[in-house]
Write a structure and sequence with these properties.
By secondary structure, the chain is of the alpha/beta class. 39% of the residues lie in helices and 20% in strands. The protein has helices at residues 2-10, 23-34, 48-58, 74-84, 97-109, 126-141, 161-168, 189-197, 215-227, 282-292, 310-318, 336-342, 352-366; strands spanning 14-19, 39-45, 62-66, 89-93, 113-116, 180-185, 206-211, 232-235, 246-249, 255-261, 264-270, 297-301, 322-326, 348-350. The chain is elongated, with a radius of gyration of 21 Å.
């Protein structure tokens, strides 16, 4: 009896607050999370003002937040919440154009992750959908957030002479492209990518991104990256040649690979099975870089849940490419880069604020 009491006390449940203007959705989510032995729905709110009161009263560990709600939209509420009472938030949006734009806004405002509302038209099995939703909420609950602080000077960029020498030994592609940069990311990735691409200044290079993101969001995501960087950014197409000064986003639900043919490098888009649990998979992109762009590409693995990209980054480094990972302190989730660190897949581990300046210094100094 005593042992049973101890076991009960040791099981700390994740307290979930649901914020959605649909009672039907609230009850669906409540039933979903209460099926999990380590989750407990402590309440739900039908608008942000009710949510504010229940956050103070119930002290949830994680919130699911609808984008479109009465009295105040979800993004505005999220911005206010992150300023005053930062809590891990998973956005929950309808599959609409306004929903995709608002979801990307919410990721920049501090949301940990997002999940489109289930639609029978998507063809996704409800069991798979629920499994992914629960996974994201549980992962978000583990993220430790702190109140925003004044911008501080980060640790200076480390000496990069060794990396410059490594890059200089690479063989160029048979084009005007000087270097390829492959970037992989997941949870927390959109905001990390925005910070990097807005500062990246090596316009005679090409970058490719594999970001874990549902297909419905990819076009809006590429458009936003295009607006916020000096590169021309678009969703990659099968057979598309690489052009200097361009960035390419892996299509939703497809793998992106590099094919360096006799007439120059092209992208190949593959509709095959999930790799490392994802499609697009960072591992697939990185391994194709290791194979077809030896010793002249750079791999960068950013914040994200799971382990996708770690083995691919190791393959890039083993082939002679230069590899960087985001450090734990600046990652929303140090799953993917953390695994790469354990595999010794990186040449350097950098704070998010150091990555773009490091890339600029490496690439611009090479000329």
């Amino acid at each position: 009896m005593q042992a049973g009491a101890v076991q009960t006390q040791s099981l700390q449940k994740i307290k979930v607050l649901i914020v959605d203007d649909s009672v039907t959705i609230c009850r669906f989510l409540e039933a979903t999370f209460n099926e999990e032995p380590d989750c407990e729905v402590v309440g739900y709110a039908l608008d942000p003002f009710e949510a504010r009161d229940k956050i103070n009263k119930l002290q949830p560990d994680v919130i699911t937040l609808d984008v479109e709600m009465p009295k105040m939209d979800g993004v505005t509420f999220l911005r206010n919440l992150m300023r005053t009472h930062p809590i891990p938030v998973v956005m929950f949006s309808s599959l609409t154009n306004s929903g995709t734009t608002a979801t990307l806004d919410s990721l920049e405002a501090g949301a940990i992750d997002f999940m489109p509302k289930h639609s029978a038209r998507s063809g996704e099995k409800i069991e798979d959908y629920i499994k992914e939703l629960v996974r994201k909420v549980k992962a978000a609950a583990e993220v430790q957030l702190s109140a925003p602080q004044a911008i501080q000077h980060t640790t200076p960029i480390p000496e990069l002479e060794t990396l410059k020498n490594k890059l200089a030994q690479g063989v160029r592609l048979n084009t005007d492209i000087k270097r390829l940069i492959a970037i992989g990311s997941s949870t927390g990735g959109p905001e990390a990518l925005r910070k990097i691409l807005s500062q990246l200044d090596a316009k005679d290079c090409v970058f490719a991104i594999a970001q874990h993101m549902p297909r419905i969001f990819i076009e809006s995501f590429a458009k936003r990256m295009n607006e916020q960087s000096a590169f021309t950014v678009s969703v990659a197409e099968d057979g598309q040649p690489l052009l200097p000064g361009h960035g390419y986003i892996a299509p939703g639900g497809r793998h992106l690979t590099l094919d360096n043919r006799n007439d120059g490098p092209h992208w190949k888009v593959l509709d095959s099975m999930k790799i490392s649990g994802h499609k697009p998979s960072v591992n697939v992109l990185f391994k194709s870089m290791a194979m077809h762009a030896p010793k002249q590409s750079i791999g960068v693995l950013l914040t994200g849940m799971g382990e996708d990209g770690a083995e691919g980054l190791k393959a890039m480094r083993d082939s002679g490419c230069t590899t960087l990972i985001q450090n734990e302190a600046s990652s929303v989730v140090w799953g993917m880069p953390g695994k790469a660190h354990r595999l010794e897949a990186q040449d350097e581990t950098l704070h998010l604020d150091q990555i773009a300046p490091a890339l600029n210094r490496l690439l611009l100094d090479l000329g």
